[in-house]
Amino acid sequence: MIVVTTCKIQGKTITSTVGLVKGSTIRARHVGRDIMAGLRGIVGGEIREYTKMMAEAREESLQRMIADAEEKGASAVVGMRLGTSMVMQNAAEVVAYGTGVVLE
After folding, report:
1. How confident is the model at residue 47 (pLDDT cuts 50, 70, 90)?
2. At the topology level of CATH, where does 2-103 sit?
């Protein structure tokens, strides 16, 4: 599956559009991670526990978007974007979305 942030894929011809494809996940903070994050907040620096958690959430959202695209018969996704929002205290949603297309 080709996934790009651009609206077209160089060297490929889009023959049809299957529509919006998306995938999302919601991740909650973990007490163990919060303790480490609190300690890092005191001394400064990157909070690796949260960086890892959000990277995993982005990857899971991307894989779910690809699965949605495949179910709809797409061979590629153009205009892919990622969005993040807080859905409740201590939990964030990561959404991957784009336009599913069929390539020649």
Report:
1. confident
2. Translation Initiation Factor IF3 (3.30.110)
Element (H, E) at 64: helix 48-71
**How many residues are listed for the chain in this entry?**
104
Distance CA 40, CA 46 (A): 7
Describe the strand order of the beta sheet including 91-103 as a list of residue ranges: 2-3, 76-88, 91-103, 14-28
Structural domain boundaries in the chain: 2-103
Q: Please answer whether residues 82 and 94 qualify as being in contact, where contact means their C-beta atoms are separated by less than 8 angstroms.
A: yes
Instruction: State the CB neighbour count (10 A cutoff) for residue 4.
Output: 15
Flag whether the pTM goes above 0.70: yes
